[in-house]
């Protein structure tokens, strides 16, 4: 009997952890995840019950210099840990967790005598390899490896950098440096991080501090992602939860947009110029509706955040070198204008064969075209009988064909050089900063034009380069060069006067010096941007020779190098002064005054808010009716990391069948959709889709977007049969959906998807009409 008692006692003791030899015992268990699986968006209605997960629970340091202690009372520090470092929990006491470093390779059945009795999911295979951390306060730990997610679809909630509380406007400079938000390494916002994020940029929130004043953010929705660039703490009123991927893009013709402000519960008429962004995020899933009773049908209203400018754009200005005003709106005009380059060629009818021989050099324009610019081309053959025009076209081939084989001269009321320049002025836009390159080929013709034309060319940012095709000692040939030099001097003078309206830095003013770039010809071009802001020059051959293709190529190389650098110099200078001086004379916008009027707590005068940057943005919650949203284009935005996964999720649901949808193919589809439904329920750890759920629900949970056709909403996967009444409609819809998916994939591969700038990051915009 004694032996039995001793044996049972031995078994009973052996089945429990042994702590006699160090902090981690042979049979030490970690905490299991259980129901703490999803980091649901705060204040949202989370699912009442989730299936338990029995894997080892991992927690993370939520700040830098996070101290671990030898006891559960915060005594005797053992070490400090950085934000994001992972730990297993092996004990809990007095508001502290006992931690060891997390490493999946350490998990397994213990090596002890009774190791076979323990689960390999939450035990250590070799306690000697476990790195003990110590005791750390629970409040200093992050419980999830992912950002806040929506209970609706378990996808990450997107935040945008922008103010959402009027009181914060009086103390912006502590958190913003120009257009950059400062991150801190601790929730008390004492120690700045080296990382900065731009106003309007999309981020993800992981955790709020105990008093809901600060929030931990990152640029990635998953901690385990290798592409995580930063993680830090910011004030909660400096970021706004705006939804997920669904957006509304403001159409170009939108003017006054009616919406209901949730702040004042008033109907407002907002102009498209009041927004800091062309895209409004759909925040319907975040419950922005006002709690006040209002006799409206919420079914026809959509929740959005309005990203409005804090400053009145009409008053944002600074003084230029001429003593006048340069407006902040000019900076964006310059940025947009510089995306377009127009190339124009003038030549005379009697020289068309010689110009045609230079087509080999001109065709190489295609090799110099930047993917970040748009290009257009025009050509004019000058004749006293009548000029022949090729208007601006984006077809390079059509342009080359015109130059190589120009049309026959027909009588035209437009004739001669002056009419050619007048036509050129008419087909180019004034004061929009598009780069216009003019190449004029001639020999001994009169190329003089009126002074007012030079002014108009300068305000269209024309670069003029004159080519003399052949050289001789005749007086007319010399006059051609003298007239070209005179025209070039006038163009330089007029352009210098024009561009000074947009120069604030006096050190950008240049003396406009020429440099001889030629070897086998005289190639005198302005040395831009080193000693000139204007571009262009004069090119003529050595005595008794002709202009060659190599010389034309040299000019093209030089100008295509100079102009982008000149543009960047002008734009970067204005952007620098925009951030520093743009708000000195600014006044708060009428929308900010409106928000100030309805402030919940008394605040100082709105004119006393911090003057930080013209890019400051404030998010106003609002409800927009369908009639207003008709001025928007609905769609979705995806980052470069998200777009491939989005397309693949659609490809998983829309396999290609070589022989159409027969019985066998429909059976495969039903089986595929049944398995996808199981996978989605398993991933969500709850039943979000039943066997009777519609195809629209299945596609939404798989892809994160709403499909278009109503048939998706009326069909369930189990009804995909040939004897169903809706089969023919489904067959047509399936084919259409495949073609839409292929179109999206082709546009992505060929870089045709529209790219949009969100903050400082590039996203792809996919219109709702492209979604199956």
From TrEMBL:
Residues 46-142 form the Type VI secretion system TssR-like N-terminal barrel domain. It comes from the Bacteria. It comes from Prevotella disiens JCM 6334 = ATCC 29426. Residues 164-240 form the Type VI secretion system TssR-like second domain. Keywords: Signal. Residues 1-22 form the signal peptide. The keyword 4Fe-4S does not apply. This is Uncharacterized protein.
């Amino acid at each position: 009997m004694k032996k039995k008692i001793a044996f049972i006692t031995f078994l009973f003791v052996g089945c429990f952890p042994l702590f006699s030899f160090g902090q981690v015992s042979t049979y030490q268990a970690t905490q299991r995840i259980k129901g703490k699986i999803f980091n649901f968006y705060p204040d949202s209605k989370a699912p009442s019950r989730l299936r338990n997960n029995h894997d080892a629970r991992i927690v993370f340091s939520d700040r830098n210099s996070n101290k671990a202690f030898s006891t559960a009372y915060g005594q005797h520090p053992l070490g400090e840990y950085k934000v994001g470092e992972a730990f297993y929990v092996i004990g809990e006491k007095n508001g502290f967790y006992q931690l060891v470093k997390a490493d999946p390779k350490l998990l397994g059945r213990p090596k002890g005598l009774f190791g076979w009795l323990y689960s390999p999911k939450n035990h250590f295979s070799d306690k000697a390899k476990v790195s003990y951390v110590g005791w750390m306060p629970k409040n200093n730990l992050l419980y999830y490896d992912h950002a806040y997610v929506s209970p609706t679809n378990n996808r990450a909630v997107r935040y945008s950098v922008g103010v959402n509380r009027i009181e914060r406007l009086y103390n912006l400079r502590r958190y913003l440096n120009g257009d950059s938000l400062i991150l801190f390494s601790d929730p008390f916002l004492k120690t700045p991080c080296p990382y900065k994020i731009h106003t309007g940029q999309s981020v993800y929130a992981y955790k709020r501090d105990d008093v809901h004043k600060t929030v931990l953010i990152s640029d990635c929705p998953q901690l385990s992602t290798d592409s995580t660039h930063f993680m830090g703490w910011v004030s909660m009123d400096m970021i706004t939860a705006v939804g997920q991927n669904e957006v509304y893009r403001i159409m170009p013709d939108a003017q006054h947009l009616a919406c209901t402000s949730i702040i004042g519960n008033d109907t407002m008429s907002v102009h498209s110029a009041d927004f800091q962004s062309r895209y409004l995020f759909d925040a319907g899933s975040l419950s922005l509706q006002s709690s006040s009773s209002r006799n409206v049908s919420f079914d026809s209203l959509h929740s959005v955040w309005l990203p409005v400018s804090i400053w009145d754009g009409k008053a944002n200005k600074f003084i230029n070198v001429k003593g006048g005003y340069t407006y902040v709106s000019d900076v964006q005009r310059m940025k947009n204008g510089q995306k377009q380059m127009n190339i124009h060629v003038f030549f005379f009818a009697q020289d068309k064969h010689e110009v045609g021989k230079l087509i080999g050099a001109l065709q190489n324009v295609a090799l110099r075209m930047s993917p970040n610019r748009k290009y257009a081309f025009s050509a004019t053959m000058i004749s006293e009988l009548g000029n022949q025009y090729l208007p601006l076209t984006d077809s390079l081939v059509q342009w080359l064909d015109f130059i190589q084989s120009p049309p026959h001269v027909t009588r035209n009321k437009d004739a001669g050089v002056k009419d050619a320049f007048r036509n050129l002025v008419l087909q180019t836009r004034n004061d929009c900063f598009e780069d216009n390159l003019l190449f004029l080929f001639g020999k001994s013709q009169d190329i003089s034009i009126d002074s007012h034309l030079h002014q108009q060319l300068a305000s269209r940012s024309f670069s003029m380069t004159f080519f003399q095709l052949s050289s001789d000692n005749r007086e007319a040939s010399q006059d051609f060069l003298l007239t070209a030099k005179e025209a070039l001097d006038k163009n330089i003078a007029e352009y210098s006067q024009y561009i000074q309206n947009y120069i604030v830095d006096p050190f950008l003013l240049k003396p406009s010096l020429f440099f001889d770039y030629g070897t086998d010809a005289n190639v005198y071009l302005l040395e831009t941007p080193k000693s000139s802001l204007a571009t262009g020059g004069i090119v003529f051959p050595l005595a008794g020779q002709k202009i060659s293709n190599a010389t034309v190529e040299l000019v093209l190389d030089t100008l295509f190098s100079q102009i982008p650098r000149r543009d960047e110099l002008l734009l970067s200078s204005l952007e620098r002064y925009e951030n520093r001086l743009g708000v000195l004379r600014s006044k708060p916008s009428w929308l900010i005054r409106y928000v100030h009027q309805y402030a919940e707590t008394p605040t100082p005068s709105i004119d006393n808010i911090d003057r930080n940057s013209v890019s400051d943005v404030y998010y106003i919650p609002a409800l927009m009716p369908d009639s207003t949203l008709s001025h928007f284009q609905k769609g979705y935005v995806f980052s470069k990391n998200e777009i491939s996964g989005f397309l693949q999720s659609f490809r998983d649901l829309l396999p290609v069948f070589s022989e159409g949808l027969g019985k066998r193919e429909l059976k495969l589809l039903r089986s595929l959709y049944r398995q996808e439904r199981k996978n989605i329920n398993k991933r969500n750890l709850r039943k979000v889709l039943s066997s009777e759920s519609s195809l629209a629900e299945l596609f939404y949970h798989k892809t994160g977007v709403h499909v278009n056709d109503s048939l998706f909403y009326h069909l369930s996967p189990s009804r995909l049969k040939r004897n169903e009444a809706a089969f023919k409609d489904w067959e047509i819809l399936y084919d259409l959906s495949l073609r839409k998916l292929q179109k999206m994939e082709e546009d992505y591969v060929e870089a045709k998807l529209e790219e949009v700038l969100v903050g400082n990051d590039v996203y792809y915009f996919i219109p709702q009409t492209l979604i199956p």
